[in-house]
Amino acid sequence: MKILSAAQTRDLDQATMQEQGITSVELMERAAQALSAWFYEQYGYGEIPEILLLCGPGNNGGDGLALARLLQEANFRVRVALLPADKHSTDWQHNRQRLPRAVPVAVLDPANLLPITKGTVVVDALFGTGLSRPLTGAAAAVVQWLNEAHAPVLAIDLPSGLFADQPQPADSPVVRATHTVTFGLPKLAMLLPQNAAFVGEWTVEDIGLSTAFIEQADTPWHLTRLPQETTIITNPPRLLYDVSLPRRDKFAYKNTFGHALLLAGSQGKMGAAVLAAGACLRGGVGLLTVAVPGGGYDILQTTRPEAMCLPDKHADYITELPDLAPYQAVGIGPGLGQDAASLAVLRQLLRTAKVPLVLDADALNLLGSHRTLLKLLPPDTVLTPHVGEFARLTEKARDDYHRLELLRTFAREHRCIVVLKGAYTAVADRDGQLYFNTTGNPGMASGGSGDVLTGLLLALRADQRLAPLPAVRLAVLAHGHAADLAVQTTGEAGLVAGDLVAHIGPALRDLTA
Ligand SMILES: NC(=O)C1=CN([C@@H]2O[C@H](COP(=O)(O)OP(=O)(O)OC[C@H]3O[C@@H](n4cnc5c(N)ncnc54)[C@H](OP(=O)(O)O)[C@@H]3O)[C@@H](O)[C@H]2O)[C@@H](O)CC1
Ligand SMILES: [K+]
Prior knowledge:
By secondary structure, the protein is an alpha/beta fold. The chain has 16 helices and 19 strands.
């Protein structure tokens, strides 16, 4: 799925109207219907709250006015408060006229804003994708007043004051919504940690926007999602896959799934090697060999009998690179430590490897402290930094938007695939495209999650049937999905990395086309 800019979103609305022969008012009505359906789902069967709709001067306010009418017709108690403005959009005026007289309408007086009654649900229909500058004056005063009320807030399309695709100044006010309902496609702003407190939970409502326009739209931003049912109804339901694991041929041989080498573990960190090895095995690798420090031999052989083990001559950390000839992919980093001997192993690996590489954890820290090594990265090497590790590889980002630019530049410059781990893990490829992952949960914020991802990436990079980018997107999607499956029994707090390993099998089964 694509993510479009604010300008492209406006063009998308126009294209939809032309393609479907509908007016902008009709499109607005679809948006309002989707919003009223949301209210039904939330409140239709329980206690019905009073709803206060704050409406701005443009089409976002027009959405609010149309929603007020639909909610009033559905017997919700509604009130409308308008932001004072000199001009209003045509569709706003249309929906203002259609608003039933029974709905109380007031114009907000920014100098005299009355307290919001407890229990009121507020709809933020002040500004959406048409925000052209940071909020000041009356609009800023209203947003501040709303935020101080701590009421539940549903934002239409975007929380007011937030730009869809670029940062706003730190001191400019933005509505802190409890929930945001957006139309057609998510907006870039919704995926960034710095905006989480404004956006709240978010959902995307389908209002029948032009798929032809979306397909041809040029954008670097994409989403990777679980398989979705097509809109064409079939029995059994047909699924559309963003990425998928090919079904195994009946006569499949283990060579198809590759022989992977994992270099991992040091004294006190053998758990990282065990977790990554487990994930690689559950990820479907044909054969796995794990190179570990001598002292880790018994641990690995006992916990993962399916893997072969190469013990290093040093007891505590890895000092020698094994002969790479037998392997189709190599992973390095989990629990590796940062000893000078391990650095030499990494350097030699980068110089000599002719197969896909996955670099994580201490391998990234070593790269960060010896950046000249970056020149040695073979094309399509996979790097899996979290935000701190990424900063060590490049520079400290000013904000989340800047970080995305650094990420795309880095991936292009080094012709590699970077997996920036976080709530919406971002996969950047050498062409400058960026894919946000949509699976996973906060239970994954605990030790070992990253080691599991490395093992899974290694398995899918060793799989001879998958191209580099789809393999990486699939691994990231499956990793999050495994966590979402596991959390159903463990809960978020109780989720440990071993649970992820145990759920990789079912996660990949769901992603097999
Ligand atoms: N198009 C469609 O068919 C559909 C659109 N949809 C809905 O429309 C929304 C987009 O509507 P929109 O383009 O009218 O923009 P909107 O966000 O209402 O704001 C524009 C107004 O605000 C003003 N303004 C801007 N910044 C300001 C500031 N800082 N401080 C003060 N004023 C400021 C700006 O004035 P100006 O910049 O011209 O001075 C203008 O008057 C979209 O988010 C979705 O909700 C859905 O119904 C689906 C169908
Ligand atoms: K809004």
